[in-house]
Design brief:
It contains four helices and no strands. The chain is mainly alpha-helical and 117 residues long.
Length: 117
């Protein structure tokens, strides 16, 4: 089950990087369906990761520590999706925080997958 969570979260992060490139160009239309798929895949990956962490902290599994920034990135992603963008610049700091938290979680999850810690 951990492998499914790992691959889902990594593919979601890669999709998020592609969406992030679209946010760099202000005149390019942003596909709402791709953002919705990104959010659904991220939610699925986080749920599968949480289900695979059965007593993970007690056993020394670092995947539990990867779940913290990933879940915070999920909350930031919900805020990006549902808060109204009142200015043309929107919530760029929130999108950047979402990306940074997701990247931190993916790095820790990858180290756990490789067996480093």
């Amino acid at each position: 089950m951990f492998a499914l969570a790992f691959y889902t979260i990594v593919l979601t992060a890669l999709g998020g990087a592609a969406l992030g490139l679209l946010y760099l160009k202000p005149l390019v239309p942003r596909p709402p369906l791709a953002a919705a798929v990104h959010g659904i895949a991220g939610t699925f990956g986080l749920v599968v990761l949480a289900l695979s962490l059965n007593n993970a902290v007690a056993s020394g599994n670092w995947a539990a520590y990867a779940a913290i920034p990933i879940s915070l990135a999920w909350v930031a992603g919900l805020a990006v999706a549902f808060l109204p963008m009142r200015t043309p610049r929107g919530f760029r700091w929130l999108i950047g925080s979402h990306a940074a938290l997701a990247l931190a979680g993916v790095v820790v999850l990858t180290l756990c997958w490789l067996g480093a810690p």
